[in-house]
Every structure is written in C-alpha cells, then in structure tokens.
Write a structure and sequence with these properties.
Blueprint (H helix, E strand, L loop, with lengths): L1 H23 L3 H18 L10 H11 L3 E4 L4 H10 L7 E4 L4 H10 L8 E4 L2 E4 L3 H11 L1
C-alpha cells in the first residue's frame, strides 16, 4: 500500500517546496500555478482515479460471468493512466486488479508476459493483451455488454 502512494506524496512534497521557494522570492502567482500543476500530477498518478480494485480470482470469476475484460494495473504506471483516462466512464464497467495489492494478480501478469510485470495487461476472453490500444479495449468492452 505504501508503494502506491510514494510517487504522489513525493510530487506533493516537491511541489510544496518549490512553491514555498517562489513565495519567498516574491512571486506568489507563479507559486500557486506551480502548486496546482503538482497537485494535478499527484491526482493523475494516485490510485484514486482508478475504479476500486479487486482480487485477481474475483475479477476472473466475474469476467467469466459477465464477459467483461479484466485489467491488471499498478499505481504510478503512465500507460495504465493513459488507458484509464481514454476509457472514461467505461472504465468502471471493467474489472481492475492492482498487482501491488494482489499477489495472484502479479503472478497472472508474470505468467502472461514471460515473467515480467508489464502493465496494463488486459484479459479478454481468457487471452492476455499487454498494453493494448484504448480504442481496442473500448471496442471489446462494448462487445461484452
């Protein structure tokens, strides 16, 4: 759990230090703008923008029932953030597994990617797809609906 928040907290700390330096140098407007940029980066890299994760076994069981894809991800992964943002509201319809929280999920990703924990890995109809195009994932999600 601590690993998931390391990068966001580091960004907040760095942004605060830089903003404090700008305020002491007499440019509070630039400090506010810089701090807003760092807060935005913190939000994007945090686990908060992702749907609530579940265990790999539960996600695979649900996927077998409803046919929706399973997405294995980890906080701080820019490719995962890109997929999540490009899916928009449709992302909530998928089953998300945080591989840093779930050892079974990490093992499933390693099995699909020759021992590497490459994310995002999307499982559609039992077949893994590593870092797929978000438009393709959206299409697969619409097929399962």
């Amino acid at each position: 759990m601590k690993r998931a928040w390391f990068l966001p907290m580091l960004l907040v700390l760095c942004g605060s230090v830089l903003a404090a330096g700008l305020i002491t140098s007499g440019t509070p407007g630039a400090a506010v703008a810089l701090l807003l940029v760092f807060v935005l980066l913190t939000g994007v890299t945090s686990p908060l923008i992702f749907p609530r994760p579940m265990g790999a076994l539960e996600a695979q069981r649900r996927s077998a029932d409803d046919g929706r894809p399973v997405v294995f991800w980890r906080p701080g992964c820019m490719y995962c953030v890109r997929l999540r943002i490009r899916l928009g509201r449709n992302a909530r319809r998928m089953h998300w597994v945080d591989i840093w929280r779930d050892p079974d999920g990490a093992a499933a990703v390693r099995a699909a990617n020759d021992g590497n924990e490459t994310v995002p890995t999307v499982i559609v109809e039992g077949r893994p797809h590593t870092n797929p195009d978000p438009a393709w994932v959206r299409e697969q999600l619409s097929r399962s609906a």
